[in-house]
Design goal:
The chain has about 425 residues and is mainly alpha-helical. It has helices at about 1-25, 30-45, 50-65, 65-85, 90-100, 105-115, 125-135, 140-155, 165-170, 180-185, 185-200, 215-235, 245-255, 265-270, 275-290, 295-305, 310-330, 330-345, 350-370, 375-385, 385-415. The protein is about 75% helix and about 0% strand.
């Protein structure tokens, strides 16, 4: 009972810290990394874990190669994103696409998707100006433009191996093939993008982009300026390089595409170091390691999650994913809670894969629809619309995404397991 009490009290205090911090510090957003770290400490202290276990839970983050590699990749992605932003490479991609794509309907969907290839916190703010401008030409309202900016950006969470969600699955479940997870997530991606098109884009008037059409020069520019993003996949899949090595090579590649003025290149790299994101991951991993040390909790919850009946798993995962995703605005928190239980069970790799996908989908839904979702907050601010009007747009998609999550899990259990 003591361990369960520790978990319950700690997560209640987590919500108190997230809600209370802005009130105490004049509207400043709570630092997620330290808050999650403190949550882990509270769990450990109330549960009666030894000081050695608390220290080991922190040290293991940096001595376990898979988790340390994840931290390196997150730092590299922040650096790469800052280089592409500061040197106008993203804008060059956009301008080249405007010469290639003749339909503004297509452009308004492609732009956030391109920006979504850089998984940085609040990245929807990068694509917001383009969606706002094109969406205005398409007679879209502010809440419709916000929905378009969000839905067509976030599909990348399921198709990029260097996204933090995929990296987290790989670090906690090393037997799971991340590329297989990505492939099996495609039906959900199809529902996500297909639904967004039907609800938010299809009814818009067709508007042509003047002068657009097949241009070898524009195509060459798109391929060249996108190369730091897609070549990471090539180096990783074709040449078998670790992801952190692949992205490092891509960072070096940008040196040759930024023009002659390279005086601020090192400074741009330093500014791209995303300390907040790293600390957030450290907090998630620390809390995860602490929870894994709770033998009573792991045994009890594990028997329910992965017992003889799959119903318990199908019910608990949505409850945890939605509860902690909605309350924190993070997908990594529910993933960090649920995935260790799967890792502790003696399950075949394919079973772990299917269970990880189900956890990923519900953690995503909790995070995506959270009122604390940073991309949503920034998009609403830029588009100048009301939060309640954006949620009226979300309501159209919610049931389809929830049904798709359950249907995909049931289908894979029938076909793959």
């Amino acid at each position: 009972m003591r361990q369960f009490a520790g978990v319950i009290i700690a997560f209640i205090l987590l919500l108190v810290m997230l809600k209370g911090y802005p009130k105490l510090f004049k509207g400043k957003k709570a630092p997620l990394g330290p808050v999650l770290f403190v949550t882990g400490l509270i769990i450990a202290v109330i549960s009666g874990l030894s000081m050695g276990t608390m220290v080991d839970s922190l040290v293991n983050i940096f001595t376990t190669f898979s988790t340390f590699q994840t931290l390196i990749v997150v730092v590299e992605i922040g650096i790469l994103g800052n280089i592409l932003k500061q040197y106008g490479i993203l804008e060059k991609i956009v301008h080249a696409l405007e010469k290639l794509v003749p339909s503004k309907k297509a452009l308004v969907m492609i732009m956030p998707g391109i920006m979504g290839l850089l998984p940085v916190p609040g990245g929807a703010f990068l694509s917001a100006p383009f969606v706002d401008s094109i969406g205005t030409d398409l007679k879209m309202s502010g809440d419709q433009k916000t929905a378009v900016n969000l839905y067509f950006r976030h599909f990348s969470m399921f198709v990029l191996p260097y996204n933090t969600t995929m990296l987290t699955i790989g670090s906690i479940l090393p037997a799971v093939n991340i590329y297989l997870v990505m492939g099996l997530c495609l039906p959900f991606v199809a529902v996500l993008l297909g639904g967004a098109y039907l609800f938010y884009v299809k009814a818009a008037p067709s508007v042509k982009v003047e002068g657009a059409g097949l241009s070898m020069g524009a195509l060459k520019d798109v391929l060249w300026y996108l190369s730091p993003i897609y070549m990471a996949l090539v180096f990783n899949t074709v040449f078998g390089l670790d992801m952190y090595v692949s992205i490092l090579i891509c960072i070096l590649l940008t040196f040759f595409m930024i023009g002659k003025d390279k005086s601020q290149y090192i400074a741009t790299i330093v500014k791209g170091f995303g300390l907040d994101t790293v600390l957030m991951l450290v907090g998630v991993y620390y809390m995860q390691n602490i929870v894994k040390s709770l033998d009573v909790v792991m045994a009890s919850v594990g028997s329910v999650l992965v017992g003889q009946s799959i119903i318990g798993f199908m019910v608990i995962v949505p409850l945890v994913g939605l509860a902690f995703g909605l309350s924190t605005g993070l997908s990594l928190v529910p993933m960090g809670i649920l995935l260790p239980f799967v890792a502790a069970m003696d399950l075949p790799a394919m079973t772990q894969t299917v269970y990880a996908i189900y956890i990923l989908l519900w953690s995503f839904l909790g995070y995506y629809f959270s009122p604390f979702h940073l991309c949503q907050l920034l998009s609403i601010k830029y588009m100048g619309c009301e939060t309640k009007s954006v949620y009226r747009q979300h309501v159209k998609m919610m049931p389809f995404l929830c049904i798709a999550s359950v249907a995909i899990f049931v289908m894979y259990n029938m076909v793959l397991l």
